[in-house]
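Why run this: before we spend reagent on co-expression, it is cheaper to look at a predicted model of the complex and decide which construct boundaries make sense. The entries below are exactly what would go into the expression plan.
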Amino acid sequence: MTTTTQDRAAAPWWAGALAGFLAAASGVAVGTGVAALLQGVPSPIESVGNRAVDYAPPFLKEFAVKQFGTADKPVLIGGVVATLALVAIVAGIVGRRRPRLAIIVVALLGALAIVAAAIDRTTTASRALTLVPSVVTLLVSLGALLLVLANLRGRAAAAAAHPLGLGRRGFLKAALGVTALAIVGGTVGRLFGDAAAAASRSGIRLPRAATAAPEVPAGAQVDVTGVSEFVTPNRDFYRVDTALRIPDVPAEGWSLRIHGMVDREVNLSFRDLMGMALEEHRVTLTCVSNEVGGPYVGNALWLGVRTATLLEMAGVQAGADAIKSTSADRWTAGTPLEAVTDDRNSMVAIGMNGQPLPLAHGFPARLVVPGLYGFVSATKWLTEIEVTRFADFKGYWTTRDYTALAPIKFSSRIDVPKSFQAFAKDAVRMGGIAWAQTVGIEKVELSIDKGEWVEAELGTEDTVETWRQWSYQWDDATTGVHQVAIRATTKDGETQTSDRAPIRPNGTTGWHSVQFRVE
Ligand SMILES: Nc1nc2c(c(=O)[nH]1)N[C@H]1C(S)=C(S)[C@@H](COP(=O)(O)O)O[C@H]1N2
Ligand SMILES: [Mo]
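The model came back. Tokens follow.
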């Protein structure tokens, strides 16, 4: 008996769809499981996602950050998975009649994963090892596809044409087997992800700082419910980076290499850093992607070694004007040499609010530079500092339409009221924060319903490298809907402009305003 078109047509479309889906799912699951067992190797889905992160046009990224915030990562991964599933399902449906075409499509998907892995900057393993999960994915998907396609063609035809033909019951068994494989692969991936860095972190006891930060001064935290905590707890600290999976960097094998235009290359282990003169400073970090009034600003107590001290060990040569810092996931930032050697508190930090850096915030070490946006200074999972010249390189975001130099634009935010918050008439108490790192805040003013600017009361200043809180009691409040706008003035005498600047190329400007109700 020969296979006829009728035999093939006997398989319903949903069986084809299931076949395609299971083939891709099993390949991805096993590949993910394999990746999880290999230290520092991204899974195939992550590699494809990482390519998407690097190649996405800047406007799309701005949209993603705006729409999804820190959830942009699960959204991207979801998008990759959904696209893959859709293509595989269509391939399966087509494959009922044209198995060869289905095989080609699935092979192409596998090849795409291999290419993505071949150029994935985020791997911390060797290139050969990095290719293993995607090659496994390709082989398993193809094998699974052949298996399920054979079953779709009916017992007799399949038995004649394919030794793997198992009939209807066999098909179900195969489907179940592949699903089990997918679950096992996925679970293994979950269990082993990040294990090394997390274990390493929990074994660390940070030494005391040789130069400790003074206590937060009384009155730095204003007494208005709903205003941000003066020191942002680690769990609330904003997170912005390109890492789909947090780089898994145990402190034990880690080292920081300082090289480039230096007299001697320096290599430091985590132990070396812990043994140096550690300093503690509160510094307010800000992301260039922070919209006026947005959440991407946070204030923490950092423990680390002065960047200048490390650079002195290496001996900076004449002619250098920049450092290029690189992370374990090969992200880069370019920072003016001056900003990391002048008297501001630039550090290679190993502690955040009394703990080793959280994994998401750069464990085991990161750069902190007061006064500069994160994309030109705050390299997390730091592994390398190259002393160089701006003329000779560009940082990650500077190759993507952002500027090379990016001091933080001073700004202010209304935390209370939240949008359309209702106050009782005799208790209209507002508050928030303002920041002008390295300069300091002189004055914060409010304008209610576009009226005269009135001065808010300032919280006590901690340092010029941290944000400053403000509060305001509106005594003659009237019932109804109102609007409040805010502007800050720095100690240099500059006042915030109402002109709105976009995020790209070097940060937003404009006044934050909020509507609220008085009852
Ligand atoms: N390795 C790495 N470091 C990075 C980034 C990144 O994408 N990768 N993003 C930078 C940006 S844009 C900012 S604003 C800060 C944010 O630091 P946080 O996540 O600890 O708040 O990290 C910086 N360091
Ligand atoms: Mo950022």
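The first strand starts at residue 255 and ends at 260. The longest helix spans residues 127-152. Bring this page to Monday's planning discussion.
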